[in-house]
Design goal:
single chain; about 300 residues
């Protein structure tokens, strides 16, 4: 399969977009629309990895809700048997704090899951080109070596790259060490470099399945301190570039203004041009809502 075409009967990458009555129901409904895509992609895979977003381990609005992950596990377990790894590398705390505060530990009562703190994981060196030079990053071995990656994110504005969705969730979380580690610090080198680094690293850890729980999103001073948006949608796709493009548009942004999506699209890694994406379920215009951008939004456009 090539990133720019669908092996599932459509000439365009497909994104499911649905209304959401709860964190669980919306994600479950979006995944149901692409179950055949998931079945084809996960068949025969041994190491299934699920990446929630715990940029904060104390504020639920900034983190992936456990019920969204539960909906993912219920769907994936239809087509996969065996242990599933749930991993994250929180920026300012330990994974354990997030698991406790957001009630993730209860998943072990119903599912065969293992939790891995990516900040303490073994590493694989991955090189990504910046505006002037290439930089090498230590990336989680668990993420790189998993043969089916699932990113479960939420729609949030961001203080460096306009919006954070499924791709950025995996890339930054897979950089080993907390926010003050050299690895996570290295990626924050201004808008030009950061967007190039995100796109370059994404090629090594791209999700095989992206899920956005948009029951509630964040606008303004994201990705931690912003304000809630009762968006009430969910989306899913095996084409994460297209998924993030669709959700960026739902948030009121032009996907091609987001540097890492622009680069991945121009490199042929994925499709971020909305007229080349098939949206099933609901049209974007029906659920589109303008998110208040981060106060530094204009500075972020200087990646161009």
């Amino acid at each position: 399969m090539t990133p720019n075409s669908s092996p599932y009967g459509s000439s365009k990458p497909t994104v499911a977009l649905v209304e959401s009555r709860s964190h669980y129901d919306g994600v479950h409904e979006a995944l149901k629309l692409i179950e055949n895509h998931i079945e084809v992609g996960i068949k025969g895979k041994k190491r299934v990895f699920v990446k929630p977003n715990f940029v904060s381990t104390s504020r639920q609005l900034a983190a992936t809700h456990v019920d969204a992950v539960r909906a993912v596990l219920d769907t994936v377990n239809k087509f996969h048997s065996g242990k599933i790894i749930i991993g994250e590398g929180p920026s300012f705390s330990s994974l354990r704090n997030g698991l406790v505060n957001f009630d993730y530990l209860k998943l072990q009562k119903s599912y065969d899951v293992e939790f891995v703190d990516l900040n303490g994981d073994g590493t694989v060196e991955v090189e990504a080109a910046g505006a002037q030079r290439s930089t090498r990053f230590n990336v989680s071995k668990t993420v790189v070596e998993s043969d089916y990656r699932i990113s479960v994110a939420l729609p949030k504005t961001h203080d460096c790259v306009i919006a954070t969705l499924t791709i950025k969730n995996v890339v930054v979380g897979s950089l080993v060490g907390g926010a003050y580690s050299h690895e996570k610090w290295k990626i924050h080198r201004g808008p030009k470099d950061m967007n190039l680094y995100l796109a370059g690293l994404a090629k090594a850890v791209m999700p095989d399945l992206g899920v956005v729980d948009g029951f509630q999103g964040m606008e303004g001073s994201g990705p931690v301190s912003g304000d809630p948006v009762d968006l009430r949608v969910a989306a899913a796709s095996v084409f994460p570039v297209s998924l993030d493009a669709v959700m960026s548009a739902v948030m009121g942004f032009n996907p091609l203004d987001i540097g890492y999506l622009y680069h991945l699209n121009s490199w042929g890694v994925g499709v971020a041009e909305l007229d080349k994406v098939e949206v099933v379920g609901l049209p974007i215009k029906k659920v589109k809502r303008r998110f208040e951008p981060h106060p530094h939004y204009r500075e972020m456009l200087k990646w161009k």
